Please model this.
Amino acid sequence: MNFQKQITHWYSIHKRDLPWRATKNPYNIWLSEIILQQTQVKQGLPYYLSFIKEFPTVFDLADATEEQVLKLWQGLGYYSRARNLHTTAKNIAFNLNGVFPDNYKDLLSLKGVGDYTASAIASICFNEASAVVDGNVYRALSRFYGIDTPINSTKGIKEFKELASTLIDHKEPGNYNQAIMEFGARQCRPKNPDCNSCPVSNSCYAYINKSIDQLPVKLKKTKVSTKYFNFLVCIDKKKNTVIEKRTGKGIWQNLYQFPLIESNRSLKAEEFNLLKFENTILENSNFEFSLYNETDRIHKLSHQHLHTKFWIIEVDQLPQDSISIEKLKSYPAPVLISNFIDEFNFEAV
Model:
């Protein structure tokens, strides 16, 4: 059986009609690949369309402010992707005259572009035979060939890359790369793969040996930590509030949030102490506070779970750097904060 021909034939019949497949413009391909890192197509597609509408060229994206980029990215998560996207756009526009590198090696030099993204752009846009290896490819190859080397180990990464490189179609590398990624996403799914209609099931190790659920193998993740966040939602009589920009390194870098008190456990209303903030935000003001959500809202990230509470603080007057509640939605914020802003009735306070 010719694995490559079977996969590309399947792709010619079953591929989805996606906007970035109608072009070989490296800007569009790069944008789509960055958005689709850690993101499913159905979630990423609206973001791709919004970015193309707002920033139709790399020059438009480069000319945007970081806040504009982060705001448009809001809700997609892994915000370092957005910051790297903006940095790379400026590099290409201002240092490379708007011209993307045309080969795998040079594409790797772009911030936010790793092995997978460089291979995708090089093969789709420039017909370079550089094999992509993403989660979908790992899954399809490990099952078909019966490879139990952990896909997130150094040995596994090398082994699967070498195998993928031997399989790639040198005449149409971009088409083959998209075919095997689509095959893994839609046919050889993580759970309940459609083996009965699979074009390669008769030669698939996992199907023949009933080991589909055991492959691919992945090393256990690092331990997820738990944090307790208390956000202070201050509102004064002029309907102003206070937000702060996260400047430290982290997934929410340069996003906005309400002032934060971190605790070592979930706090009840009678345990909450605002003294820490009385000399700053609430300086020389009378205030009353109440707990908005008695049950913690749990926001799950890849490396930590955030148990959050929102505290509503009614105050006579806030500092001069406060903002009108009407402007809140114009600031880029983590989805946790954005959802609260959408839900809470500020006017009722």
